[in-house]
Every structure is written in C-alpha cells, then in structure tokens.
Amino acid sequence: MQGIPEFIDTAIKAAYINQLLNVGFDTIDFGSFVSPKAIPQMRDTAEVLSLLDLHETKSKLLAIVANVRGAEDALHFEEIDYLGFPLSVSETFQQRNTNASISEALKTVEEIQNRCEIKGKTLVTYLSMGFGNPYGDPYSPELVAEFVEKLDELGIKIISLSDTIGAATPELITSLLEVQVSSFEDIEFGAHLHSRPDQVVEKVQAGIGGGCRRFDGALKGFGGCPMAKDDLVGNMTTEIMIPAIEKEGFDLGLNQRELTESMKLVDFVFNP
Description:
globular, alpha/beta, 10 helices
C-alpha cells in the first residue's frame, strides 16, 4: 500500500487485512513504523493494528521498520511477531531507502536484534538488491554471502533475499539460495521477488529448487519497486504462486473461500 498516493482509509486497510487473516497465510506484512513524512500511507499503522481481529487467525504479523526508533515503536505491541528491516548490499540503495550507509545499517540491525531478543520478537532482515542493482555498485553471490555471514554473527535467524528490481533469473535464484541454505543451516531463508505475472511460476519453482520455503507475495501483484525498468514488474502475484507451490507437493492449508473473498476486496482497496 505504501506507494499509493491517495490515502487509504484506516478502516478499509483494517478490513482488508482482517480478511487476509482468515485465509491462513503464515505471515501478514500489515504495516510499517516509519516516518509519516517519508511514507504518509503508513502513518496509521498503530490504528490499523488496534482494529485487527486476531482471535481466530493462525497468521503472524510483521511490521517493517527503518531505524531503531521505529523498532521501539513496534516493540510496544504484543500482537506483532516479526519486525522487518531492509538491509541492502547496494550502498546507493541503502542511502536512498533508509538515509544511512551500509555500515550504519548493520549497526542498526544489531541494535534492533538486541531489542527483539529482549522482547521475544523475531527480526526478519530483507537483503535488498540481493540479485543485483541498477547503480553499478559492486554485486556478486560472494558479496551476498559476506552479508549473510555478518547477519549470522549477529544471531539473525530469518533472511529474505530480495530482488528489488525484478532482475533475477531463475538460474540465479536457484544457485544463490542453494548456496546460502546449505551453508547456513540455522537460518531460514526467504525470497522477496518481483516479477512480471508470466514469470512468477518459474521464479517460484527456482526458489523451491534452491531450498526456499518462505515466499512473499501480494494479491494481484500490487506494489513493487519504482526503480524497476518495466512497469509490469510488481510483487509476486499470490494467486499465481499458490497453485505453483502446491504443484510442487506442498499443502499450504489455505481457506479457498476466504481467499476468494480477499480477491474481491483487492480492487476496492487499491483502486477505490
């Protein structure tokens, strides 16, 4: 939702997320504790949280933060299970995304991780530009491994390799995940990929082939990165991902009726 210029009413956001909570997804990325000046759409995250019905759901809640202050705000809420922080292998993107250098961001990760451990929360670190960047900054699978090793030393247990601009090929997705999954057995690796709709299935298959069991998606693929060169490159389309994952032999245990109801709300929420 964060990239939509028109402010979405708090009650509408909450109604949409409540519907998603009925489907049975493992985790719902429901909001962000970030500067309202930087991302006005997310200024009501605390209010949205207060309207969520968590009594019957098995889904966990994840909130994105960009600094220690945002993490402290998020940690006040018992309902939140995961905090997500965007760390980049690209110095340029780290500055653009969080107004900090990579070295500063690593210190922030350490501080947030320490606070999460005290509060019994889990920090999910998104390794953005994990499959390359458009700035000419250094990139290689070996560089990604160096970042993962640093995060492992900090005790990070979930790392989501993020294809911020939709540039990853299936071959790179498989090989990159395969090496990390086999090298760091105590870390759960996820994949936050961006894709054209016609490439979603092959990217899911590539991720599963590399050992990934944690995928991010969005209904109808809404969202994405404004730096993607192709306007059709959005988030991975959830309704395409689900049958692709199930075809690989995984039972997701989702409520199809509730998923259908969620699909009906998408256009109303994102195109009011």
